[in-house]
Structure formats: C-alpha cells, structure tokens
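Friendly challenge for the regulars: who can give me the structure tokens for this chain first? No prize, just bragging rights.
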Amino acid sequence: MANASILAMKEQHVAEIKDRLTRAQSVVMFDYRGLTVDEVTALRVEMRKAGVEYIVLKNTMVERACRELNIDESVHAMLKGPSAFAFGYDDAVAPAKILKDSIKKFKKCTIKGGIVDGVVTDAQGIDALADLPPREVLIARMLGSMMSPITGLAIALDQLAKKLGGEAAEEAAAE
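First reply, four minutes later:
Bragging rights claimed.
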C-alpha cells in the first residue's frame, strides 16, 4: 500500500500540472533525448526569453492531469518515452517556433505533439503552428485586407470627383 504522504505529494503534483495545462495557450510535448547539457541550457534560455516554461514531467502524472481535465485520450499515445514540455502562456506559437528552430539547429530531439487551446494536436499540427507568421504580422495582414475595399472606393470616388470637376471647369471655360 502506498504511503499517504506520497499519495498527497502525487496529488499536489497532478494539481500543479492541471494548473499549468489550464493556464497555457499551448503545450508542446517533445522527446529531448540526444540533447547535451549545453544545448538544453541554451533551449531553456531561449524559451525563458519568450515567456515559455520548459519542464520535464513524469508521463503518468501528465496523463492523470489530462484525464482529470477531460482532455482527448489521443494525448496518451504521445506520452511514451522521455518527454519534456514547453508551456506557452502568453503566445501559443512561441513554444512551437522555438522547438522547430532548435531541432533544425541541433538536429536532435523530436516533437511528439501538443495541446493548443485545449485541442490535442499531432506533430504535423505543431509544425504547421510553428510556420505561422508572428501575431503582429497576422494582425497587419488582416487590417490590410479589411482596408483594401475602403481604399479602392476612396480612390474611385477621388478619380470620379476629379473627372467631374474637370468637366465642370471645361464647361465654365466654354461659356
């Protein structure tokens, strides 16, 4: 029979993981095997700069937390072997971008998948997320596309006004 204090510690650990999962906009799970201490340190520094939390957790604790949060069962297939987790609290794209760049640079470790806004996503989904442009660029593109019809209308009205104004001036000169 398990010791009551050990069970209490495990329950507290699961509660902390649940808190992280609910606060995070995205969680990227990856296999960190093959990374040297210096590479892991560089990865942690880069993640910390972006506001991403890098942590190694026991798969069974994460499974239990996911089960309690009713997260899709497909996440359990990703929790095999050594797993590290990157929690993006402020930016959902940052963990995926940093990990994709690090994998290219180190040519080690692999992305297993993740959870984005409560939806379980496979490695290809995380890769696609990493390819998204920064938030500011997406907002600028959206505003540009919203302004395009208005700008076109303004140009057309200006040209029409110039044409009508030119015709009126020609008529006044003819009189």
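Residues 36 and 98 are 17 Å apart (CA to CA). The radius of gyration is 26 Å. Your move, everyone else.
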